[in-house]
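Retro notes, item 3 of 5
We never archived the inputs for the zinc ion complex last cycle. Fixing that now. Sequence and ligand:
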Amino acid sequence: MKVHVGTDIQPFSSGYHSEQDCMEALIAMKWPNDFICPRCAHTRCSRLTSRRIPLFECGKCAHQTSALVGTIFERTHLPLVKWFQALELFLLPDGISAMQLSEVIQVTYKTAWHVLQRIRHAVGEFDALELLCGDVKVNSDLYACNPSRYELSHPHASAVVAGCTVTEADEPEHVKIRLVPQQRGDGTRVNRSDLAAFIRKHVDLDTSSVQSFPLAYRLYQPLRKVVREAWTSLKRTYIAVGLKHLQAYLNEYTGRRQLRLPGAEATMWQKLLRMCMAIPAISYRCLIACQSNQPLAAVA
Ligand SMILES: [Zn+2]
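Structure as it came back at the time:
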């Protein structure tokens, strides 16, 4: 992979170097055993290879589909090799900015931004389906540089609710960080109804014991540390993130953190690719229009 001189980007290689390699990887992930027709569930098909993207025609109902339908890669004009490189770079410890990505994979800034936002969207949507369950802690907090309760009017502070499951060693495991609606630096603080809305939306109440910390000076400190680490990591890569899209970047951070957790058999790469295969693409227009900073209570 060609890396821009002057950056210290050191991507690992997923080992996919051609469009065919990438396509076969996607087909194998889409149908790990046999082809299954999305319309009638029949398992026999013909593979039509006359087009750039191989089509599979159902042997029963003649429905034609491809491995890209219903994934973030659907209708993309970008070569899959570049998508795979972007996914590799997304997994770097602090991710990669659109500017850096555009230089490394040789695309326009707009294309690089759209690619990264599509990946963030997939990671965020996938994570939203997975509720916190077990021993759960929930903090009110601020996303900012080393905030304290005296700095609520910090010009770059954003009020958040953070929640996590906790390991037996009392360490945060599965973490979610959600913005509370605000104008940045307006002194907004999380209130009890924000915490309650977060718990209703993101915690499996049937299987969890929840401890919430609504007071800024009495928090579950290991979770506060993760919020600080998110700020440091995002700041290192993106310098400044606008409030409109901050939730997507927070999802990226917690999603990557989740991908790094030990225990699962699949590699980070396989897990990320699975997310991208499970979530339909979001259009550029929707990304631009999307209002990520919705009230917690409204989306609960
Ligand atoms: Zn069929």
